Structure formats: structure tokens, C-alpha cells
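Q: Given only this backbone (221 positions), what sequence would you predict?
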């Protein structure tokens, strides 16, 4: 397996692992654990395998409760990557438009009510379109590093998954590292105007199915 294929496989696994654990999808957890056996040996992949072993062993209700506690209750653990940079400002809606157009140009169509910056969706795209997807992840690296840090502080099992994704990206430059430090201290900027409620109509998915994703803010409740 080439390095490109290994990265695509990791992104595919992470995309599933970071989604809300729907009861109907729990039967496939053992298959994902087996698939992870194809990943190369290493510290970060060992962390992913350890996470998957825990993830596959949990009762669905317990896993769902742990997921909600991690990503919905603790607001610093947002899976919506552009939130970290833009908060509630109108620029976030512009980012939604850009991402949706990029997906559509690659033939990748949004389903349900997933927002374009939803990390599991970005990872799914990266698994299917490795070159373009890697660029999207790199552009979102500040948000990923903030999510990574928040999960590590809370000692969340999901930290291992985000850690593996971050380890595959180039190291942040000085400006990026400084921005991460500032956002850790201040949180993202806030402006309620112009998101309606998340973005302009052309940014939103066409199909509507399933529960709407919770819009998470920065400060922990």
C-alpha cells in the first residue's frame, strides 16, 4: 500500500470514527477495526487502533452519551472547523460557499444537512480526493490543532483520532502557531449577522435528512 493510500485509509477510518454513533451503524464497527489493521505500524496508528478497540467494545447508548458529552457539551471540541477561525462572523458563510463549490467541482455532493466544514465530511472528501482533500485539511489546520488540544486536555478517547489526522499534516509555521495560541486564549471572533443561521442559501446542502448538526460555540458550558 502506498503512502497516499495509507493516508486515504486513515482519513476514511477517522471520518467514520468522528461521526455520531448511530445505532444502525454499530454493526459495522468490527469491520472498521479489521480495516485499521492495514495501517502501518507507528505511534499515532497504534493510538487509532487502541481507540477503535475501545469504540467497538462500547454499548451503543454508552458510546452515544460519551460522544455527546465530548462534542456537544464541551464547546471547545467543535467538529465544525471554520468556527475556530470565524466564530459567528459572516466570513464563515463565505467559507461554506467556497467549500461547497470545491466539493461540487470534484463531483462530491453533500448529503443530509451536513455543513461543508464538518470534520467527518472533510475527512470523507480527503479519503476520496487525497490531493484536494489534503489541501482542505491543511487550510483547516489551526482549527484541527485547537480541537486536538481540547480533546487532549479533556482526555477524550477521540483525541487519538484527531492526533493521527494532525500528525499527517505539515508542521504549523510561526504565524499559525501564534494564531493557535491567541485563539486558545481568546476564542474565535463573534458576530451574529449574516449566517442565516449558518450560511447563505447557496452554501447549504440540497438534501435534508436526519437530525440537524448542533452548532457548537467556543466556551464550555
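A: Predicted residues:
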Amino acid at each position: 500500500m502506498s503512502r497516499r493510500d495509507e493516508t486515504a485509509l486513515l482519513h476514511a477510518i477517522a471520518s467514520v470514527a468522528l461521526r455520531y454513533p448511530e445505532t444502525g451503524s454499530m454493526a459495522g464497527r468490527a469491520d472498521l477495526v479489521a480495516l485499521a489493521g492495514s495501517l502501518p505500524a507507528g505511534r499515532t496508528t497504534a493510538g487509532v487502533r487502541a481507540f477503535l478497540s475501545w469504540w467497538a467494545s462500547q454499548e451503543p447508548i454508552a458510546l452515544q452519551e460519551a460522544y455527546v458529552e465530548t462534542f456537544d457539551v464541551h464547546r471547545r471540541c467543535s467538529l465544525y472547523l471554520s468556527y475556530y477561525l470565524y466564530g459567528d462572523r459572516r466570513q464563515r458563510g463565505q467559507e461554506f460557499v467556497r467549500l461547497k463549490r470545491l466539493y461540487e467541482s470534484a463531483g462530491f455532493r453533500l448529503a443530509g444537512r451536513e455543513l461543508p466544514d464538518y470534520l467527518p465530511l472533510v475527512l470523507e472528501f480527503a479519503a476520496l480526493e487525497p490531493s484536494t482533500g489534503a489541501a482542505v485539511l491543511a487550510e483547516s489546520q489551526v482549527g484541527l490543532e485547537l480541537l486536538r488540544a481540547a480533546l487532549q486536555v479533556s482526555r477524550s478517547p477521540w483525541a487519538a483520532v484527531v492526533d493521527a489526522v494532525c500528525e499527517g499534516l505539515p508542521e504549523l509555521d510561526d504565524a499559525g502557531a501564534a494564531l493557535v495560541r491567541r485563539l486558545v486564549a481568546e476564542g474565535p471572533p463573534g458576530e451574529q449577522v449574516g449566517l442565516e443561521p449558518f450560511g447563505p442559501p447557496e452554501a447549504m446542502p440540497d438534501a435534508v435528512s436526519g437530525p440537524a448538526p448542533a452548532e457548537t460555540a467556543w466556551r464550555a458550558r
